[in-house]
Amino acid sequence: MKKSPPIIGLLGGIGSGKSAVAFALKECGCIVADADANTKAVLHDPEVREQLIAWWGTKVLRTDGDIDRKAISDIVFHDEEARKQLEQLIHPRVRCMQEAQFAETGASTRGLVIDAPLLLEAGLDTLCDALIFVESSRELRLSRVSESRGWTLEELDRREDAQLPLDTKRNKADYVLINEGELDEVHNQVKQILEDIHNGRHI
Ligand code: ATP
Question: Which of 29, 31, 33, 147 is exposed most, by the fewest CB atoms within 10 A?
């Protein structure tokens, strides 16, 4: 029987370039499950939408009737019970989408990638054969997220404080990819790391 492709998890600080690395892995023949995109899709599932309205009323809706993700994150940011409730509703469905995406594996698939901001926090690392930590200095990460998302240093720190420390993430990793230069350099490192994963070479 043919061995299934390795499952690869991405770790790193906010704005370190995990999605950029996921994109490079996709270009190298991997299937990527993007947890952010899958979560957005799940929030539009009619069953999920009805449940959110049943719990928290129409304040979870925007004026155009669409789900208001900002309103939902405000609710769960201040209420631990609500956060758990939301996770129990969302996580199994996101997991299902990921499994369906990975089931598309073909003969040429070189890896199955989980791009999830809270990979370790959600215990998804237990599914992975290899973990890649994407390294970028705090200054660079700040300049990227202030440019792409308009965040301040305070915003970056507030969000990063809600995650596991970067040292914990780095220590869990099998490979470190330095993303402090051009995107071309990401591509070259991704190619090398994929080869190392297939040959069983670790750092
Ligand atoms: P998050 O944890 O919030 O999901 P992330 O780690 O996935 O963030 P990305 O979204 O990949 O980070 O990168 C953040 C921003 O920085 C994006 O706009 C991306 O295009 C840009 N970026 C990432 N790496 C580079 C690079 N080497 N050169 C230029 N821009 C980059």
Answer: 147
